[in-house]
Amino acid sequence: MKLYMTEMSGNSFKIRVLASMLGVDYENIRIEWEKNAHKSDDFLALNPRGQVPVMEIEDKVFWDSTAHLVYIARTYGGDTWLPTNPLQMAEIMQWMSFAQNEVQFGLQWARGVTVYNRRPESFEGYLQDGKLALEVLERQLNKSGHWLALGHATLADIACYPYVKRAPEGDLPLDDYPAIRAWLKRCEALPGWIEMDP
Ligand SMILES: N[C@@H](CCC(=O)N[C@@H](CS)C(=O)NCC(=O)O)C(=O)O
């Protein structure tokens, strides 16, 4: 298995941390982000979106961290991280969808403005979606307890973690969200967890 990534990519971090917790071996291929390698013809042949992470698994290529997390969890994680029971799977997929919507288009992209000056004209909209993401998460954790779904750590938590952790860098501080702050610490205490690069 090969993972094309950069250290600063929160979506790549999801794969790296799950692989670490499950003791999965893979080849890490760092792309030269600074030189815009993710927009090169060679890279676009792997991922037409021009984004990391990308994974080569056997003779197939997949882009989008959701696909990678599903593959790793089901191949190496038994029923813990993504159970096949339909109701339980639906519950996890709901939060993985949320990670790809409000978390990405709110929290991740607000930070994209403050850190990379990407689409600054849309900042207000990103902030609104980011706040919505934080409110939904805070409410869920107050209801569900320690974890987002199923009463234990699952792909739901891994998929949401990186850009919630980095939300303050996008002008979305976590001061008003005590349940989220406690949940971030709980994630970081999982066996095999690795630190996310700044
Ligand atoms: N939904 C995708 C999002 C991937 C993504 O946003 N990757 C960022 C780095 S974390 C990227 O490559 N951005 C460059 C770009 O969009 O041009 C996933 O979960 O993999």
Notes on the structure:
- The protein contains seven helices and four strands, in the order E-H-E-H-E-E-H-H-H-H-H.
- Helix 1 packs parallel to helix 3 and helix 5 crosses helix 7 (178-188).
- Helix content is 54%, strand content 8%.
- The protein folds into two domains: 2-76, Glutaredoxin; 86-188, Glutathione S-transferase Yfyf (Class Pi), Chain A, domain 2 (Up-down Bundle).
- The longest helix has 31 residues, at 86-116.
- Bound molecules: glutathione (GSH).
- Residues 9-11, 38, 50-53, 64-66, 100, 104 line the site of glutathione.
List keywords for this structure.
binds glutathione, alpha+beta, Glutaredoxin, 2 domains, 198 residues, Glutathione S-transferase Yfyf (Class Pi), Chain A, domain 2, four-stranded mixed sheet, single chain, 4 strands
Task: Calculate Rg over CA atoms.
Answer: 16 Å
Biggest sheet character: 4 strands, mixed
Cα separation of the termini: 25 Å
What is the number of helices? Answer: 7
Strands, helices and their partners?
Layout lengths: L1 E4 L4 H13 L4 E4 L10 H6 L7 E4 L2 E4 L1 H12 L9 H31 L6 H22 L10 H11 L12 H11 L10
Parallel strand pairs: 1-2
Antiparallel strand pairs: 1-3, 3-4
Bound molecules: glutathione (GSH).
Provide a quick synopsis of the model.
With 198 residues, this protein is of the alpha+beta class.
